Amino acid sequence: MRAFSELYEQLDSTTSINAKLAALVRYFRAAPAHDAAWAIYFLSGRRLKRVVGSATLRQWLLQESGLPEWLLEETYSTVGDLAETIALLVERDGARSPSGLSLSEWLERLLPLPAMSPAEQQLHVVQWWKELDARGCFLLNKILTGELRVGVSAGMVERALAEVTSLPRTVIAHRLMGTWQPGPKFWAFINAPAEASGDRSRPYPFCLASPLEARPETLGAVSDWLIEWKWDGIRAQVLRRDDGTWIWSRGEELITDRFPEVVRRAAALPVNTVIDGEILAWRDGVRPFGELQQRIGRKKLTAKILEETPVQLLAYDLLELDGVDLRDRPISERRELLEQLSSRSSAGFDLSPLVVADDWDALRELRAGSRERFVEGMMLKRRDSAYGTGRQRGVWWKWKIEPYTFDGVLVYAQPGSGRRANMLTDYTFAVHDGAELVPVAKAYSGLNDKEIARVDRWIRQNTVERFGPVRSVKPELVFEIAFEAINESGRHKSGVAVRFPRIARWREDKPAAEANTIEDLRGLLRVEPAASDAR
Amino acid sequence: MRIMEAALITVTDRGLYCPQADFHIDPWQPVARAVITHAHGDHARSGSEQYFAAGEGAGVLRHRLGRDLPLQTLAYGEVFRIGPAVLSLHPAGHVLGSAQVRIEIDGRTWVVTGDYKRTPDPTCAPFTPVPCDVLISEATFALPCYSWPDTRDVVEEIYRWWQANREQGIASVLFAYAFGKAQRVLAELLAFTDEPVYGHGAVLPLVEEYRRAGISMLPTLPVEKTKKADYAGALIIAPPSAAGSTWMRRFGDASTGFCSGWMRIRGARRRRGYDRGFVLSDHADWPGLLQTIADSGARKVLLTHGYSDALVRYLREQGVDADALRTAYGEEE
To answer: Under an 8 A CB cutoff, do B265 and A79 touch?
Structure first.
């Protein structure tokens, strides 16, 4: 654990990309194969399924520390992180000679925990707390609760591994995709010569667009761009191989089982075809994301839900055809091949249509109708662009529509976590409902550090009541909240649920009385079309 | 039956006040007589008619409040009188010249700790527990998560960080309070090196005051305003207010660190945006506060600033008569 915890510290204690890269390279050059594989596992954002829950750890800490529960709570809310609270409070005997076990040896130790009785688990974990130094203890708890996050991007890990292995980054990126077992075998695969083919069921790294903030006119002639609708569904790669079909989400989750109708149609695709597209709820056209979400939310796909909410794959890119990797070809060419493929009688998918217009103004007009089409705006892809790895600047843009907004009153606040631990940064906003204020949205982000500090101070001075970590405050501050969509909801007291709420700005100019009303929000419900023939 | 005893110290809008003898301790408004526990800005303010402070801190106090300050200095333990009160100052271990104030009237003893710490510090006399009936203690870090690591380990970390930056050819800018923390770091680093360290303009005059008081520290060099020196590999000590200022530009690509008890918490470290946080505090940690309260033998404990509410509740649950006192002292460190 020593080497990994030093790496963690180095990554955590610098914002310099070069320093992070250097630390990763140093680590991977020295790490034994088994450790290196586990390190990649965690660094690439993969997490173990929770081995022990945080409520359980908290209980053990309560017993171990002998502190009153309220004081433990107060300390926890100051630290903002349970794993760290434990590391800070446990008195350790081995602090000066921390355990010499490596990362993979630690995993061998802790993976059998779920099979043990709670008493045995407690005995082991509490012993480990004392055996490790503070940083190791922190990491152990993060691994146990499945919450280990490391401050590096996927791209940085790829770059470091490319340097260590002297392989092209794209090869590394591909090898890191999908699910794999961390072990020496995986590390050997990462290091294998570029030609070596791995597991053919793994997806290619997704090519991502950047948000377009400038005017589209700055991009030059419309004719240089391939323009698509920006669908609001699940971005997915569909891989058709000789031994089956795999569907991967953009988050690298295998979601094949969730969408049997897509799998069924994909059987018609030629063997060794890989398609990038969007899975959407579909009934005589695309349905709002909310419907798809309901289907995803179901644990079991019943015949009923399959009939109620069928889905469709709209393809917009072709990454591999007949076993040939097309990613380096321009998208104009890939699109042509995709269209040819879709025109075959048993295509296996539907095509995401291109948006055609003579100039940017015409596009602007079309884009204004995005909400009626249940899309989030448009995608602009330069005709000569390859299918890159990760986020692309300059060649792929997402040109999203302006979000909805409302002015809400701050009514509750609670401490954030991580960088915002100990600061009151998680807010609940309400709108007027007659004489009352009814909460409609929670938002965490959107303010800068200075504003956060000011709001934090204000909250502390204007707290009305405290319920554990949550404070109710005087209903005075007004914030403009941006959000993407609004749906009726039986689960919320307000009767509506807003999607992706975030703070657009602090309206210091507005008194609480001028905040929006629930009727204003309900008014937007009616704007959202109930059914669509919009395509 | 318990007879209500008159408090020897109350809080007025000007500060901690002794009504029987008409003097203030660390007043935040000008008063007739001010007993000063130490020279930090939130405890020592100008404008009072007469000041009393420990002799060891006279230099820094005059540096901050003026050379012609009407100051009466006292040795630690020396007894002096104001009206009916018998006073003495005792080392608080916070910074050079910091003192606890012991007040005795009619056989009753109150102690005001001021800011203090119980970890060793080569730049000031070590904290000595003072028995009393009522203890007024600071509570800046009164939560169990605040317990300080061994100073030597932290200083070694600072030294290693400096050396690692040097290997990469970049400067190390260490932020530490200009009075107290900066000098403590310079003194502690003597265990590792005798190399000179650059000091910000706010730090160096206080370093000189410390040298005049006989404190050994690493040699210091000024950060020149005009000459472009090569700071690669150097250590520079600066007050936190210099972070993010144009003054920083001269060091080019530098690594930054901050010395403070608040750096004990990872979230605080990340929020401040320094590359490194070093847990080095001039305040008492949780075990230090509890130890001090136990050592004092006080039957009543009053707590000022920081997490005083949590400590009050904890002490009450332990059967100690405790209360919070609202003061205007800051929690900067």
So the answer is: yes
Instruction: Please state, as a whole number, how many other Cβ atoms lie within 10 Å of the Cβ of residue A31.
Output: 22
pLDDT in tens, A240-261: 998 889 999 988 888 898 999 9
Measured torsion, CA atoms of residues A124, A129, A133, A137, in degrees rounded to the nearest 10: 100
Chain centroid offset of residue A516 CA: 30
Average pLDDT of the segment spanning B186-204: 96
Cβ of A418 within 8 Å of Cβ of B313? The answer is: no
Q: Which sign does the torsion angle of CA B303, B307, B312, B318 carry?
A: negative
Closest CA to B4 of B155, B108, B85: B108
Give the DSSP letter string of A448-470: -HHHHHHHHHHHHHTEEEEETTE
SS3 labels along A440-451: EEEECCCCCHHH
B142 contacts on A by Cβ (under 8 Å): none
- Give the pLDDT score at B272: 79
State the first-to-last Cα distance of chain A, in angstroms, to the nearest integer.
55
d(Cα B148, Cα A240) in Å, to the nearest integer? 59
Residue A258's alpha-carbon distances to A164, A209, A265, A276, A292, in angstroms, are: 38, 26, 14, 17, 11
The Cα A158–Cα A177 span in angstroms is 11
pLDDT score at A535 = 33
> Catalytic pick from A20, A49, A130, A230?
A230
Hey, what are A245's tokens? 């079909």
State ipTM. 0.91
pTM: 0.77
The answer to whether residue A508 scores a pLDDT higher than 80 is: yes
E strand or H helix at A406: strand A404-415
